[in-house]
Fold these 2 entries.
Entry 1:
Amino acid sequence: MNYPAWDVPVIGSGLVIAAIAIFHVMISHFAVGGGLFLPMAERYALKSGRRDWLEFLPRYSKFFLILTGVFGAVSGVGIWFSIGLASPEGTSSLIHNFVFGWAIEWVFFLVELTTAAVYYYTWGRIPDKLHLQVGWLYAGASFATLVIINGILTFMLTPGQSWLDVAGTGEEPTRFFAAFFNPTYFPSLALRTLSCIALAGVWALVVGSRIDAQQHPQLKTDWIRWTTWWLVPGFVLMPLCLFWYIKMVPGSQLELIQLGISTIGTGTFTQVTRTLLVSVMASATILAVVYLAAYRKPVDFQIGYALAILLLGVAATGSAEMSRELLRKPYVVVDYMYSNGVRQVATGTQEPRQELERFNTAGYLADTIWATPDEKSLWTEGPRTAPPDSASPAENAVLAQGELMFRGQCLACHTRDGYRGMQRLLHERNEQAIRNILTMLHTPQEDSPYRAFMPPLAGTGLEIDALCAYLDQLAHPPVAPAD
Amino acid sequence: MSDAHDERGERASAAEPPASVTRRTVVGATVGLFGAGYTGAIGYPIYCYLNTPVARAEEAAKVTQVSPAGGRQLPPGAGMGFMFGTRPAVLIHHPDGTWSAFDAICTHLGCTVKYEPDKDRIFCACHLGTYNARTGEPTSGPPPRALTQYHVEVKDDEVIVSRS
Amino acid sequence: MTRSSSPAVERSWRSRLWDFCDERLGLAELLELSRHKMVPQHAHSFWYYLGGISLFFFAIQVLTGMLLLVYFQPGPSAYESVRRITYDIDFGWLIRSAHSWSANLMVLALLAHMFSVALMKAYRKPREFGWWTGLGLLGLTMTFGFSGYLLPMDELAFFATKVGLEIPASVPLVGPLLAGLIRGGPNVDANTIQRFFTLHVVVLPVLFVLGLTLHLYLVQRHGNAVPPGEEAKPDSTRRYIKFFPDFFVKDLAMWLIALNLLGLLVCLFPWQLGTQADPAAAAPDGVHPEWYFMAPFQLLKVLGSWLPGAVGELAGMLIFAVGGIVWGILPLIDRSSDHPRAARFGTWFTWGTIAFVAGLTAWGYLAL
């Protein structure tokens, strides 16, 4: 507990990240796919001498520049802000491992932003061939940003045995490339590239729907037909790539999907299977909807439909990203760090033991900087479960200790009274039942259903007592006598 | 690309019937594939939904008795899980030497339950439901019904669990 | 088209089947009719799809409703049978969640349909009966929702029905009598489920199908209305698309999107079942009816606390009765663009109603 906990009421920090990340993915994938789309469209227009396309493309690239350069860039920074707050230990691990990767990422990012601006402002001002070359340069730079960030994203799901062998020894950078080109790297890169191409098509449809069909019927028809083809590669190849990706996911994580599929009939199946289903269903439908609504009669294609297709795209992309995140449960980095920030393997050569084991014997809060020594001294003795109506300092200390435990180990995924809220989950359980759950989480059995998606609870017996007292008070708040 | 496509389409319909047939076949096949996909995705759950009582009855009829491996070696005051056909079941050797066996699927939400010797109860970890270890009746927590009890017959070298 | 009956020509089985059906059912005429049907195309024509979307959700309601009937038992075992559907029967959760979610989406689509129709002034002559049948169908749908919500008989359903019945109970004079008749006794119990069930699966469907037939007939007869701004344009600049196949195909695409939205909600937020209703237990905090009854509920609540006793209820009922009547006779007030004052009144009254209902609903949720 070296970092403050980020306490987001009602929705929880996870959903804040999810909202920012899905917004960002919709735009950043467009930035990469659109990087390919723009020079391809320009090349087509130049080759076939389409003046109307060459007049329309600058308008399109303005939309592109504003959307990706402003909203895409800002939301990308937003992701790092929010994950740094929600899971500081995890973010710190990523930075320590991939600081070099990020340096390269930022170089390409700068090239990307610069070329996008140059591309827009030099329409008709420099020779066509040179302008097209700027477009290709942009395409290359934006694809390179995907190539790099993909390594860091996939690392969290499959860090790879080679990296895990040295994790916690301080030698991690020597396995940089093994961690970067990890088992799911290439299938994920293929999936994301296909999704980029498809999203470029979806966004081009949105823009194309705004072309005035009465003034430019030919432009509208051709533009929409041409962009529709951008959805086809994803539609055909994505199932194969998804299969490849799932092949590379370790069995322990696939259990979640398998459990979901085997219990899909009865209402208990896992969230990851459900989100995966949504993603498959929405992706499979997009092409049909585009064909029926846009391709058949492009001149009748209006913005309302384009937005509905974009919405389907958000559903498909969002749920795919969500299932990828859920697949990682109960870890931040699989087999290395749990979602509560506790490391599974040794944290350094100085301390060869497991962090979890150290927390269980010495105390999770032993080194915390969020309590004064005076406060800490109150934790060692006194009643562990105080009646709610008394207000003795010892009881407050217990509750304060419990709250620190809650902030450290629960708040990353749960809220008090909202999303995955403790009050809803616990209000039907008495203190003994809450203690049972905590004990079960503290000493997880192999066959416990919680083991697949919740991390072990770290701490000494006294700390767990304090957490229990805090949760009990949270779930059953003392009622004012007047009520 | 689109121009070429249109031209091809027009030419095809005017002068080259074979090409037109191919295109029609592709469109037809795609539409058919979509239709089949949606029919399957909607039809399969409906079939399972309507078929549940049949499937459950067949499942129940398939296996009438099993002899859990190592069942006879179970010491008093211990329980073990085994499969009764396709369903998990639990065999209990009570401290007083008597035996019980139950279906191990919690009647609340379908998690697998286990025997807890120290508290002499059957416990479901998912929502903390408990059952009486001798009758299978729910004693606390959310389970609405008793676990199905099986008949246990103890022989010299094996324990036979059968549908009672 | 192929009305030839000469047997000399060798014909495929398809065209023979077509002829067989066509001669007896008059399919060619229908096809001819649909070929001539045109749908206006303009900046607001997206709203034309909402009626179709509502219809699609209704179709899902019928299908999933019939499937639920296979296992649902009204009366004292209602809760247990819904529990069995949700957690025991294979894919029961899916059918039940689809039924609940599409009910909510249907009400939402209908409200959007109604308000867009009002803003496009599609209630004007000769479409007054379309407006009235539409209002009737909305009323039936909300009654569907109210009666269906109780059927699982869990805690939430029980108390939501209890508080929801405060609305009819506050009708002056006959209110208590009415509420008693609806409940089938002084309390919400197995009797209430039985009669809500009858209402939900027999009475309302029959009425709804009758109303829907009339509504669709009227839509077919008068065609789509265009908003006044579009109507003012010269004929030559107005555009139309063919209903079949162009509009129909887009309808189909819209239904696919609606189906995906439903699938998303069902998969990510499957409908849960609360604990069994216990009439003796205290009502849980913040008990409230379904969102589409929130506006009248909140109005009664607020007026009840501002004005003493029955006066508050009376005032609330009066506001709704007068508002509802004006809403109903809107086509008689705002008859054509020739009367600008009446037309302005229609527009402002529609916006006012939207703001009033949305505001009360939001207020209701904030005040929970």
Entry 2:
Amino acid sequence: MSGDGLLNVAGLSAGYGPIEVLHQIDFTVAEGEIVVILGANGAGKTTTMRAVSGMISRHGTVEFAGHDISGSKPDAILRTGISQVPQGRGTFTDLTVDDNLRAGGYTVKGSIEDDLERWYELFPRLSERRNQKAGSLSGGEQQMLAVARAMMPRPKLLLCDEPSLGLAPLITKELFRVLGSLRDEFGMSLLVVEQNAGMSLALADRAYVLETGHVVATGTGDELLADDTIKEAYLGVAN
Amino acid sequence: MSLFLERLVNGLADGSIYALLALALVVVFRSTGQLNFAQGEIGTMGAFFVSTLTLTGLPVWLSIGCAMLLGFVISAGVERIVVRPIEHRNPGAVIVALIGVFLGVNQVVAMIWGVDARSLPSVFPDDADDFVTIGGAPIRIARLGIIGVLIVVLFLLWLMFNKTKVGLAMRAVANNQESSNLVGIRVGSILVVGWGLAGAIGVLAAAMLAPSAGLTGTLMLGPFLLASVAAVLGGLDSPVGAVVGGLIIGLTEAFIVGYVDFLGADMLFPVMLVILLVVLLLRPSGLFGSERVERV
């Protein structure tokens, strides 16, 4: 398949050792679009992320901005413009906030000072704590740091792996507002995997529902929010 | 007083050598979580290489530079060829493999250079009359030079870790390999550089020690054990700890041998182990080791 999106994924299978978690899934992300993949625990959300970013071996076609990256290594995929916010944030806990962001800019050739100031402006809390070790930040601040760090390589597409995990509702709301502004103000495309259907579907232009490694439903965010089976399964609302 | 000063400088000079070796151990431990048992032997091999090069008429400092390069290549090779392939399959087996490398390098040195002791010229003025008098004590210039080498190495390492991109990458890899991958750092290359760097520092330590200790196949055996104690004492993941630990061990050695007759040189290791035990009971992660502070 050769789609016309920024990211075109076709027949993607991946897993760990002999266990296949993801079975031949297809999805696309268009330029400037926010796409959510909704799924419960074990549905294959993280596996999808890791397969796209090249962290695990996979089969199928992954095409990004006209490049076939199906067989590329993580650092090559990053250089083509896909950056990932890993599940559990994955900040460098022993490094300062500033060094975390600088490490994020590792692949950028030339000065990254302007990038640093841009993200400090968007995340003033990080700016206040730039000389503090990342491990001493709160969960919400670490998640913001993980997003800012992932923006440092100047990606075109940001992958977010369950950004709301372990965050209080108010902080999640703030985070999703920031993710929205990355698209609105910086022209980013986003692929977000989530369990939190309410907030993520409100953010999404389009969404896919993943169950045991298969895509079982797809539609716009609003369509899925209105869907009764989705409501029941992911929002805890009975008919 | 003058005797005290002399012992102080001697203790700091020996301590500097332990500190260098402990630094090498810590650089590897931070990135890979392994204690490189072959660290001392690679140093010994480097010192023999220095002796061969100086015999061809090469200046001592240049010979040491070349030998450090050799140490870099060998140590980097150990990471790439021995440690990494085994680590994927069985992390515990790496220890055994490194002991194997220790024995192997030891034997190769004996094969190439024989078992007779050699003398290695010092890079500093080291004749009988090369000393300065401080507070009435004759302090050998070569001893001061060794302390100076430690200071220079520390400064260069600080520059590298804090002011360069590769240094930042090394700290990132030491902290979180998966995330390092995600930001585009080639973790494998960084590990190779870290091990290589440690190898070069180990060779430098051996080349500093050999002129006074005499160059034999067992040159680094004692110092390696003391440096391991120093590294654990300071905290295995702390470069500052390695240096402080090394200096403490060096000073303790000089003062015990100098002042505590009934213990003397023979009891050195037991005394060190008692010190280590006490420190670890009070501070399990060593003097400067990180007790990780993390909020979830």
